[in-house]
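Here comes a specimen:
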Amino acid sequence: MGGLYWSPMRILGVTLGLLLAVATLSPAMAQTTGLSTPNPQGPVFVVRPNPTGPFRVVPPGTPGSRESIPFGDEPHAFNNPHPMLPNAGLGFAVRQVWMPPQPVVMQVYVPSPEGVPDRYQTMFAQVPGFYAIETTTGTWIPERWVLDQVNVGIYQWRLAPMQFVPNGSQ
């Protein structure tokens, strides 16, 4: 009868132990999965054939490799600023600036029959306005419509990509 008593208790103990392990390890595992891991926490070895050129991360002991240098463009544990610091990348948003719509005067090609000289007609368009976001380190310019001159007298609308323009003081 003693074996029957201990068997359910052992199963209960193992089950509680597993539940406790899962409950305590789940928050720790969730902390490691973020948007990305910007830089490694240990030493990384790189090969940079050209001093100003790109680097490649390689396994330790690769001929010509060396440990990465901190405070540069190479991956290093010291290059991880705290996310709330202004030097964490793009800085804090300071204000939104309205960029008003811009009128555009275009000389548009008008097709004509053969033998008749080429004609151009003046047309007007307006490039839509947008809000730019100034941060402590530069300016975010959102996606916006721009008017490109493809050729003489030929224009085309294009959706310009979002871009970040850093301040000159950096």
